[in-house]
């Protein structure tokens, strides 16, 4: 049985504490008034560094685009908007920057939160898929996957807090929740968003958010309990069949809630914009990250001797999934871009204009990190079973998909005011700490080998014909 | 000549065949060829054949296909007959690159797949109207055949093969 060592526990708690301090600091240092925001911007500009220099240009772009948005939203008020725009320009701009700076600590927290919540959720979905497929190879990895899904509980709780905060207007990440957006008499009235009000309304959004989290957590709690029960059940496969059935139901629910979750929690940040394959795109990003995390935890636990039944072929298979879903992600990333680029409809292109103007480096670096690098590194079959290669490839994949989530969220919430500093890093540390604590304390609570699973034998003898297991004789079959 | 004599050992199960190949190799006999009705994973390694280089050629063919696609789209759409499609005039290849990505992808796959198959046929000396080389038609149905050249050790080989679960052992003159 694996022991969650005191050293690792202290390390994870230290990460949580450091992260919390950083998060508290970033909330504390966010501007409280428009004047403070102006001061921060002036302070940045007075440094005269390259960031300050490029800043003015970027702001202009953002403004042009914002004007565009306005133009589309209120076509019939065209001349009105033009006139008032000039008059209110400076005040409106300061107000805008102030809101972006206020959103910053929330967005930093939200990016990391969504990344870790999504990874835990996709590990759960991958695990359910293994049960539904009745696959043989992955049984010895079941307890690793179950342990990772333990992270779903704390991240769901924090997500719930963020949802409540959005509803209570403590944060303003979702522009459609602002005052008067649905009120035709209001200055803030937005005809496009109002047209979507049957879906985009605060009560509906809040109820759906709670329902998603509840459904996922109920399945996780149930399958974990019954998976451990399988070990000693000895009931002629009755528990096993029950777990199969509940996983079938979960996969069905998951596919629907995952898409809806990505509309509500990510696409709603840019309420004018929509993309029909966005749910898939988010799924691909989170799935490849989830498989990388499974590979990491497996490699770590195996190096500690906690997974004696895992051999090189299991690592090889995980790396194949990492490779395959990296290609899948790229396919969706490009498919989404190409259709919007070709059609060139302003309502759709705003999404990419914002990312190309203000996020060029992360937006393009992401393609290298999530596509070119893993493809070239993991193309060779032999490399896929060497832990070192998998870890190097995986680190780049995880960083790349963090950036992917970052570029999904930040342009809508903080616009040109983005940076990667204390708020972002401390949020990451906080969630890494929670992840380590939740995963390894959960792994220590159950037998690392699912004794009662009928496919256990097959998984233990899993050997991909084309590779040799290191530390075993070559004719082991 | 003595060395033109070969032993044909027949098996009716791929697992038994694999163990037999390993047993024969363990005694340091050379296996000339194994005829199978379907591919048996790991057989090449058990027979001691060098790893295939087909994957490397496939990679190079893919790169070739990518290069051809870039050249082709540039020649057709930019140089030879520029067209304005959907309000996107073709001034440079780069500005229209997203439109060409599907073509680049398809030609990469097309070149890699077709040229790899052709390479495989050439390396296996297969072409249209080629006479079948397999010594027994049962190897296209449900039998596996291991061919071992005989060097004055017919009795020893036969005895060894009999212990490996062969269903039939024939000594034949190879022409």
Roughly how many Å apart are the termini of chain B? 10 Å
**Domains of chain B, number:** 2
Oligomer: heterodimer
Q: How much is the average pLDDT of chain B?
A: 89
Alpha-carbon Rg of chain B, integer:
25 Å
Largest contact between protein chains? A-B, 13 and 14 residues
Describe what you observe in this structure.
The complex is a heterodimer of chains A (477) and B (175). With 477 residues, chain A is mainly alpha-helical. Chain A has one domain. The two termini of chain A are 27 Å apart. The longest helix of chain A is centred in the first third of the chain and has 56 residues, at 78-133. Chain A is 73% helix and 0% strand. Chain B is an alpha+beta fold. Chain B folds into two domains: 2-37 and 142-173, Alpha-Beta Plaits (2-Layer Sandwich); 54-123. In chain B, the strands form two sheets. A four-stranded antiparallel beta sheet of chain B has the order 2-5-1-6. A two-stranded antiparallel ribbon of chain B has the order 3-4. The chains are: A mainly alpha (477), B alpha+beta (175). Chain A binds chain B through residues 334, 337-338, 341-344, 379, 381, 465-466, 475, 477, and chain B through 18, 22, 41-42, 45, 55, 59, 86-88, 98-99, 101-102.
